[in-house]
Amino acid sequence: MQKERFSSFFISLVVVFIISTPAFGQFNTYSPYTRFALGDLSKPGIAQNLAMGGTGLAIHEGNRINYLNPAAFSALDSTSVYFDFGLNSYHNSYETENYSNTWWNMNLHHVAFGSAVGKKMGFSAGIIPYSSIGYNIKQEYNSYTHGMAMDTYFKGDGGTLNFYAGTSIKLWERLSLGVTMNFLMGKLTREKAVDFPMNSGYSDATSTEELNLRKPVFTLGLQYKEVYGDKFFFTIGGIYDFKASTELSNEYSVINEFYPDDPVMINDTVSIYPSYPIGEDTTSATLNIPQKIGFGVAFGIPNKLTITADYYMQDWTGSMSGENFATTNATSMHFGAEYVPDVKAIRGYHKYISYRLGGYYSNSYLMVNEYQLKDYGITFGVGLPVKTLKTSINVAFTLGTRGTTEHNLVKENYGILTFNVTLHDLWFRKRRFD
């Protein structure tokens, strides 16, 4: 009976993964800052984590899939399995010194599975976002004195996914160690077009760049949890992502559209005739994904109150650079809290609800116009139990700001609504009757 149940559940999981993968590939996002490097690196965690400021390095609980630290997988109940999937919705507004705009979209966020493997081990696998790009920008240049005008269009889309699989083991009763293999995979497409609206005889040039990423990155995790009855608990956690160097498949092409009257003059002595492309090339570039270190702490009252904080650092200096941008040393701080009024209450649904809030402050890995981007915000949300306290609907709200109107940059205000369902089931329980 249990073997049949396991087989049907596993087959269903594989089918959902296959169906979900094309939906992940859409990467509906919009931000002018995704023009650079790998784009916008995803915020950490699913709704339970995001509502608490993106924390999770020291959360060791059996009622959720916490992929931020693989050591947390050993906390899963030995008779339980979890299947988690989620969506998120973005609302962005942009400001410069004399311009503003808004944008909205919705994405499939993640699909994940988690289960115990015996009494001391846990396992989890899933698909989660790693980075995304999406922008459509027009820059106008006018010289009325000489009768010249040029419009430059920038457009980009795509992103990278993290296909992860990890396991952990509990040593003694307090210490857990875990490891995750993260396989990063995706494609980033960027286009640039130049048009001369006041000079119909000029050539229109278009360039396209495609970066393809395929690379495994390994994560080690550790958690130590001390519990003092039902009065107090204390947990510390940490992760280490190994450095990875990968070859990027970089396909780059430049195409000119010519007008039939005359050849286009490159300079005084060289001309290009209408059917001749300026250039087309395929190259490989090396991308260094630097090591990442994270520390976390959590404390509170078991099954009632959790207060937690995380800190990350990852030095991207020298990994990628280009016109007006470079990668640099990134750091971030995250804070969060969760409160459940009375997990054992007989009546009053509101007493079972998990109330969460938090905040974060990040120094981005991007340096644009010699200014390191800042990203900060507040978060809040709830966990709504369904039937049992281990199956839940979780909602998280994020209100944040990135960038500035100074340094010839754009200030981005955004709101993110994240929604996920954590499904819980029981396996391997002996039955008296069948």
Main sheet: strands, sense, barrel? 14 strands, antiparallel, barrel
User: What is the H level of CATH, i.e. the homologous superfamily?
Assistant: Outer membrane protein transport protein (OMPP1/FadL/TodX)
- Give me the count of strands: 21
Poorly predicted spans = 1-12, 269-284, 428-434
CATH architecture: Beta Barrel
Beta-strand percentage?
over 45%
Radius of gyration over all CA atoms, rounded = 25 Å
- The number of helical runs is 2
The secondary-structure element order is: HEHEEEEEEEEEEEEEEEEEEEE
- What is the CATH C level class, in words? Mainly Beta
What's the number of structural domains?
Answer: 1
Provide mean pLDDT, rounded: 82
**What is the general shape?**
elongated
What percent of the residues sit in helical stretches (DSSP H or I)? Answer: under 10%
- This entry's quaternary arrangement is single chain
Strand order of the largest sheet: 2-3-4-5-6-7-8-13-14-17-18-19-20-21
Distance between the termini: 9 Å
CATH topology: Porin
SS content category? mainly beta
